[in-house]
Design brief:
The chain has about 120 residues and is an alpha/beta fold. About 35% of the residues lie in helices and about 20% in strands. It is built from 4 helices and 6 strands, in the order E-E-E-H-E-H-E-H-H-E.
């Protein structure tokens, strides 16, 4: 399984995009920060789920999330993405990335809803 990240996970487990500083400073370590955050999230999920472990490779790519995932899935048999709506309406509708993937995918897509609010 490949985990692709474009942000960091907050305590709820949702991914939040990481933005460069507006001051124009180059953020040369952004790739490493994102990779570490995604790897930490995967390890936390492994602890929560337990055995059997699934092999996961973390790749952090630049670009629009939907296009990065579609490009990376060229040789895949199934593309699994999460959906994280906000509120009741958000849980009934797909997000923009999931919608784009479902519309443009060349393979079966499974959209997994986020956990309901506690």
């Amino acid at each position: 399984m490949h985990a692709y990240g474009s942000g960091h996970a907050d305590p709820s487990g949702l991914s939040t995009p990481v933005q460069p500083r507006t001051s124009g400073e180059p953020v040369t370590h952004l790739h490493d920060v994102v990779a570490r955050e995604v790897t930490d999230s995967v390890e936390e999920l492994r602890r929560q789920v337990g055995e059997p472990f699934v092999e996961v490779e973390v790749h952090c790519e630049r670009g629009r999330p939907a296009q990065v995932l579609l490009d990376a899935s060229q040789d895949a048999g199934l593309l699994v993405v999460g959906s994280r709506g906000a509120g009741l309406w958000g849980r009934l509708a797909l997000g923009s990335t999931s919608t784009e993937i479902v519309y443009h995918a060349h393979l079966p897509v499974l959209v997994v809803p986020g956990a309901p609010p506690a």
